[in-house]
Amino acid sequence: MNENLWLTAAECAERIGLTVKALRLYEKRGLINPRRTGKNWRLYGVEDIARLNEILALKRLGLSLARITELLAGQATDLDRTLAMQQTQLLSLRSRVEDNLSRINASRQRIAAGEPISINELISIAKETSMTDQSADAVAWRRYEQARPRTEGAIALEINDDYLGAYLFEWGGSITIARREGGLTAQVLGQEAIDIYPEKEDEFFYRVVAAQIGFRRGPDKRVDGLVLRQNGWEQEALRIDAAEAVRLAEDLENRTKNKQPVDNSEALLRGLIAQHQSGEVDYDKMVPALADAGREQMSMIRADLERAGALRSISFKGVSPEGWDVYDVAFENAVMEWRFALAADGRFSGIFFRRLP
After folding, report:
1. Which chain positions lie within coiled-coil regions (predicted)?
2. Do both 251 and 264 map to the same domain?
3. Is residue 131 situated within a structural domain?
4. Better-scored residue on pLDDT, 81 or 174
5. Interior angle at CA 41, CA 37 and CA 44, nearest 5
6. Whether residue 253 has pLDDT greater than 90
7. Domain for residue 152, yes or no?
8. Cα 195 from Cα 219, distance rounded (Å)
9. Distances in Å between the alpha carbon of 267 and those of 272, 316, 348?
10. Rounded Cα gap, residues 9 and 86, in angstroms
C-alpha cells in the first residue's frame, strides 16, 4: 500500500465512475471507512478502492446493497478473490463473443457460397445473440460465496450417522462419507479421504480447499443426497447402497490395474484436440459444468494449441487413480500430457492437459 496516495471524495468518485452521494451511502452502510483530515475532509486510499471494487463486482451480479452489506459485514477485503471473479466474468464474455462471431462468420461464408443454412443453426445463433451473461454471473457469485471463510459449528455427534454412506454423481463418480475421530471425512472415488467440518446441521465444509457439502433430506427426513459446491459449480449426488459403491470401486481398480481405456478412447481424444484447434467445440458432449468451464477457457486453450503446432502422435499411458485416460501427445513444437474422463452417459466429465518438459 502507498500511504502517500489518497484521493478526495470527488476524485475517487470521478475515477471509479460513481457519485459522491454513493460513496457517502457506502460509508453510512459501514462498507468503507475513509480517512479524515484535520478539517474532517474524507480521503480514500488503497483499502477503500479495493473494497469499492468488491462492492461493484457484487452489484454487477445483481445483488442489492442490503445483501452486499450483509455479506461483507465484518469481513476484510479479499482483493484477489474479487479480481478473480471479475476476470472470470470478462474471460467468459470474451470467449462467448469470439465463439459466436466465428459461428456467424462461418454461416455468412456458407450463404455467400450459395449453401443453405438449417433452421437449427439459425435458432442456435439467435439464441446465443440474445443470451445475457447471467449464467456466468451466477457462477462467479457462487465462486465468491464458496471462497468465503467458514466457522466450525457445533452439532450433535449422533447426527453424523445420518450422513454416512456413498453417493453417486450424475457424471458417474461417487463420494463416500465416513466416520473419523470427532467427525467425518469425504472421499471422492479414486482420491484421498479429506476431513470435513460442520458449519451447521446438514452443511459441511473443507478446510484444505474452498468447497462445501450440503446434505439433502427427503420427505421422510432421511438424507437421500448431497450437493458438492466447488469452483462455482454445484454437483448433485444421490445416495446409493454399499454394494453399488463396492462395484464402482472394483471397476475403477480393474481399469487402473489393467490399463484399460474407455471404448474408442484415442479417437475421442483426437476429436477433442481437433475441435479445440479449430475453435469449433461441441460443448453438448460435455457435462454442463465442464462445458461452461470450457467456454471460459476456450481462448486460452486454443492459444496454447496454436503455439504447440500440428499434432504428430498420441501414445496411451494408462488410467489414473481417479479413472482418467492418460496420454502423451506430441505436437510440432511441444509434448503434452492429456487426460480425460467420461460420465456414465458418454459425455466428457473432465479434461486436463499440461506441457511436459
Report:
1. none
2. no
3. yes
4. 174
5. 85
6. yes
7. no
8. 28
9. 8, 12, 13
10. 24
What's 346's DSSP letter? S
Let me know whether 229 and 315 are in one domain.
no
249 and 263 in a common domain: no
Q: What is the DSSP letter of 138?
A: H
Q: Which domain holds residue 209?
A: 157-255
CA distances from 147 to 73, 78, 80, 290, 304 (A): 15, 10, 11, 20, 28
- Mark whether 213 and 226 lie in a shared domain: yes
Q: How many other CB atoms are there within 10 angstroms of residue 74's CB atom?
A: 5
Q: Tell me the average pLDDT of the chain.
A: 85
Whether residue 221 lies inside any domain: the answer is: yes
Which positions ≥6 away from 129 have C-beta within 8 Å? 100
C-beta separation of 350 from 290 below 8 A: yes
Q: For residue 91, what is its C-alpha cell?
A: 474471460
Q: Cα-flanking dihedrals φ and ψ of residue 172, to 5°?
A: 110, -20
| Residues above pLDDT 90, as percent of the chain | 43
Last residue of a domain, one of 255, 285, 317: 255
Q: What single string gives the DSSP state of each residue in 53-75?
A: HHHHHHHHTT--HHHHHHHHTTP
Report the domain count for the chain.
Answer: 4
